[in-house]
Amino acid sequence: MRAVIQRADGARVEVDGRQVGGFTGPGLVVLLGITHDDGEAQAQAMARKCAELRIMRQEASAADLLAPVLLISQFTLYGSTKKGRRPSWVAAAPGPVAEPLVARVAQLLAERGLPVQTGVFGADMRLELANDGPVTVIVDT
User: Fold this and answer.
1) Which CATH architecture is the domain 2-140 placed in?
2) Sign (positive/negative) of CA torsion 80, 103, 111, 5?
3) Best CA proximity match to 66, nearest among 11, 5, 120, 25
């Protein structure tokens, strides 16, 4: 499981011109990629890391502030560009494997008291955010 976590001062995601998720003020945008051998252990570890990373202002974590999280499924995080000009997506898990794990990470974050919103799995989405800092970290489980 791989995530790009960005501290944001507001974010929104749209599908077909309609906003389906977002937040105003400080929070996190998490782009989440799933690979073939990911499971419950990786979901638990990723939710813990997203919630507890001390990347908010004043060295706080999202859990400390009960900050909102916008979680977006992003299979392209497992794209390989080692050969040629066209990325290979073979390391990305297929939808039937990835979708429940993305939902599980969202559930685990919500169980920690964080307000969680998501995009629409598999949809063509437009994501807007104000990266605060900028602070962007990559996490692999």
Assistant:
1) 3-Layer(bba) Sandwich (3.50)
2) positive
3) 25
Residues forming the active site: 74-76
Residue 133 structure tokens: 């800092």
Per-residue pLDDT of the chain (141 residues; tens, 9 = 90+): 999 999 999 999 999 999 999 999 999 999 999 999 999 999 999 999 999 999 999 999 999 999 999 999 999 999 999 999 999 999 999 999 999 999 999 999 999 999 999 999 999 999 999 999 999 999 999
What contacts 12, CB < 8 A, 6 or more positions away?
19, 21, 22, 23, 70, 127, 128, 129
Angstrom distance (rounded) from CA 117 to CA 37: 25
Q: Cα 32 to chain center, whole Å?
A: 4
Single-letter code of the amino acid located at 110: A
Q: Rounded CA gap, 107 and 102, in Å?
A: 9
pTM of the model: 0.96
Q: Taking the C-alpha atoms of 80, 14, 129 and 112 in order, what is their torsion angle to the nearest 10 degrees? A: -90
